[in-house]
Amino acid sequence: MKTLLRLFIIFLIVAAVAVFWVWREAQDFxxxxxxxxxEQVIFDxxxxxxxxxxxxxxxxRGLITNARNFVLLARWKKQENRLQxxxxxxxxxxxxxxxxxxxxxxxxxxxxxTVPEGLTWWQTGRLLENEGLVRFEDFREAxxxxxxxxxxxxxxxxxxxxxxxxxxxxxxxxxxAEAAGGETAAAAAKAQARAVAGRMIDNFxxxxxxxxxxxxxxxxxxxxxxVPELQKWVTLASIVEKETGIPExxxxxxxxxENRLGRxxxxxxxxxxxxxxxxxxxxNLRRSQLDDAANPYNTYQRPGLPxxxxxxxxxxxxxxxxxPEQHGFLYFVAKTDGGExxxxxxxxxxxxxxxxxxxxxxxxxxxxx
Length: 369
Hints:
The radius of gyration is 29 Å and the shape is elongated. The protein is mainly α. The longest helix is centred in the first third of the chain and has 30 residues, at 2-31. The protein has 15 helices and six strands.
């Protein structure tokens, strides 16, 4: 009995020492800044970054003393999934709880946002609005403003196609301007939308510059082709972007449309019709919509290219539009949903390929080979 009592006392002592040790370590961690007061450190949090990785990078940058303890702190406060993405100005003299608070509730100095290929201008506007970077109506006003478009050298009615897909670090709206309300807040919001749209358009011109054919630049305007070529290339690039996500096919798809244009054939591109239907398109393209000649983007009814680009596109699609593959194909159809395409030189070959695609699609729905 005495032995059990002795063991129990030893256990209590060990447990007390362990608790005291954990308490002291926690107090030391929570009360000890990792760096010098007033020392500013710019710190990036990537979208979707795991808490463990963020903590390790904070420790490496000298912003916390212990990555494991920072993870435990975030979990204890139930904030492990609330850290924002963006670029933050952190202080080396901050304690761990201040660092965590800044990453959860602070305003990023620059906010990271990724705009993927294939979005329309209104989809881009909604994405930026959801990220808290612009108000959609201000963005719409900017990308459809004739003066804004002239300033950036865009020869269309909107900035469609020139809002370069990329990952951006953008300055969030000024909270002091938002707090002011009234005309001050409205003017600041409009300026913010124009600044964001302008940044994306500048990025387009910068990335497109190496792609223009030699000698295509106009005198006095560096690395910008004449308007007719520019209109053709960016419009065709947007169609290529929507038609295939397979890198090896982009130049071949561009070649199909180049061949059709050369022969005076209708382009018959579904994505152009869908674009003309606007944000109200429900995902189901109907025969009546393909037959609607009132849609200016209906390339089943109207000859030539549509009035302008139908989406943002990457440099690969633009390169394909500028230098399409030389071949004799006039048609293409998907081999499988979302997969590669079968290219054909004659309508008879194309009809066989369509029949095969439909057969495989029906078989896939039935679950048979």
